């Protein structure tokens, strides 16, 4: 293995910080417009980001991108999410809005990873610039800060494919035909277009423009941060709930398929097997949840039962984390359903976290194949997706990924219970953070927050959020001695 290209890593990190500086300027403009006291901490953060960005970029300016491989890409991506969360927490911490570093880092990591778990008890007390920044970091994290950087890579020089591969792992879908930079630009184009459409639709309802922008950011990112303490339930509007439900579903679809849909190639969308499974899982879960809520009297009429159940199913399945109802009183049956949905999640290539529907389909088909082999031991029964046989290597990787995913959740549950966290909270919090879903169970349910957890547990969950967002191996590989050997 070749020597690590440290200059390339510095250059890419510098580029990330410079780009993030531009996003902070937008938040400063919002704070200035609303004449809030958050202009100063946001401005301090912008200065720090720009200084670090220029310093790192100059250190790596002469980096030779030809000698940058997957190893450099994985390190850069992991460091980007970890370090940007430290820099992104500065407006909360410097402004005194979140005084505990563990809380501030947890809140910011939850934003960048589009988890939506929060430690804030009074969100509406925050000034507009901070609320906008909180939504903006989720919007960036949705389709990936790395993908945005790759889109601008021609301006700064190569290294695109290593970053793209490390951040946006997929398992079954074909790539675009053009270069990686063109892929990233088109993904961001679709992302921005959908965000604009949802903003207009929400603004046409009871939301003002500020709330519409913030909620469109966090809906398309399947993140779930709201500007209100009661989340989406604040508006008590069926229109808002249905609009957000639809766009949560859209955010959980592979963005390459959405791109081809806009190009007029409808067949790719409707013939995609992963999307069909995702659709039928959603419909099945909604039917079960609606029946459970209505016939057990948790809501007074069928339409309300359907609307509340549909919203909570979609917010769990798409790992968004919004709330229109507290599902904790709905009992252990719905808790189990919610945890299962959080694990399965949306499609590969979407803004969702979790296992992904594509991997779940491969697991199910592998299981069925093994049952068939019990009665036909000499038969060759390949796992098929979209009519094509899935290579054995990919099936193996899905099995390994699924094992590591469950094992990681179990280890973190042990750590949280060791730290004094209750069993319900440990299970719900670890599954939720590993799948980037947000709300958990018990005292960290959809109408509560994570502020009551010990600091150590918040650091563990922050690590879990980042590892889950980067599809596990990108982060965990860094802890293997063999990864660093030349």
Automatic annotation (TrEMBL):
InterPro entries for the chain: Cat_transpt (IPR003445), TrkH (IPR004772)
Binding-site list for K(+): 114-115, 223, 319-320, 436
Membrane topology: Multi-pass membrane protein
GO molecular function, one term: metal ion binding
Entry annotated with the keyword RNA-binding: no
Similarity annotation: Belongs to the TrkH potassium transport family.
Name of the protein this chain belongs to: Trk system potassium uptake protein TrkH
UniProt source species: Parabacteroides chartae
């Amino acid at each position: 293995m070749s020597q690590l290209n440290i200059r390339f890593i510095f250059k890419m990190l510098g580029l990330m910080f410079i780009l993030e500086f531009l996003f902070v300027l937008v938040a400063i403009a919002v704070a200035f417009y609303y004449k809030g006291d958050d202009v100063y901490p946001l401005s301090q953060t912008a200065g720090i980001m720009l200084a670090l960005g220029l310093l790192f970029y100059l250190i790596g300016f002469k980096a030779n991108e030809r000698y940058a491989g997957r190893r450099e890409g994985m390190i850069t991506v992991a460091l980007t999410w970890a370090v940007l969360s430290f820099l992104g927490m500065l407006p909360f911490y410097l402004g005194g809005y979140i005084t505990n570093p563990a809380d501030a880092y947890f809140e910011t990591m939850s934003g960048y990873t589009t988890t939506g778990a929060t430690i804030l008890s009074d969100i509406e007390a925050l000034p507009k610039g901070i609320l906008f920044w909180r939504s903006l970091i989720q919007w960036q994290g949705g389709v990936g800060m790395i993908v945005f950087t790759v889109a601008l890579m021609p301006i700064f020089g190569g290294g695109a494919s290593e970053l793209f591969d490390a951040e946006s792992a997929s398992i079954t879908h074909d790539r675009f035909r053009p270069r990686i930079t063109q892929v990233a630009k088109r993904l961001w184009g679709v992302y921005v277009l959908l965000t604009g459409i949802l903003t207009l639709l929400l603004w046409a309802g009871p939301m003002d423009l500020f709330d519409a922008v913030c909620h469109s950011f966090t809906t398309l990112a399947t993140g779930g941060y709201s500007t209100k303490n009661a989340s989406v339930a604040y508006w008590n509007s069926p229109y808002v709930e249905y609009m957000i439900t639809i766009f949560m579903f859209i955010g959980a679809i592979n963005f390459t398929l959405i791109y081809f849909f806009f190009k007029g190639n409808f067949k790719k969308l409707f013939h995609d097997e992963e999307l069909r499974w995702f659709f039928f899982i959603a419909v099945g879960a909604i039917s079960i949840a609606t029946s459970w809520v209505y016939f057990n009297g948790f809501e007074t009429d069928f339409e309300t039962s359907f609307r509340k159940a549909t919203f909570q199913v979609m917010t769990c399945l798409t790992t968004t984390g919004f709330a229109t109802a507290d599902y904790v009183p709905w009992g252990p049956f719905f808790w189990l359903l919610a945890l299962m949905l959080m694990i399965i999640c949306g499609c590969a290539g979407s803004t969702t976290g979790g296992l992904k529907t594509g991997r779940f389909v491969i697991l199910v088909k592998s299981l069925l194949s093994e049952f068939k082999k019990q009665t036909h031991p000499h038969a060759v029964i390949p796992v098929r997706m979209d009519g094509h046989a899935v290579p054995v290597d990919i099936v193996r990787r899905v099995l390994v990924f699924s094992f590591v995913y469950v094992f990681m959740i179990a280890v973190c549950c042990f750590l949280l219970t060791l730290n004094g966290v209750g069993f319900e909270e440990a299970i719900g919090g670890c599954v939720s953070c590993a799948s980037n879903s947000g709300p958990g169970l018990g005292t960290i349910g959809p109408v509560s927050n994570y502020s009551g957890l010990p600091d150590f547990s918040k650091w563990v969950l922050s690590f879990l959020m980042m590892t889950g967002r980067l599809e596990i191996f990108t982060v965990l590989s860094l802890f293997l001695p063999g990864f660093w050997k030349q």
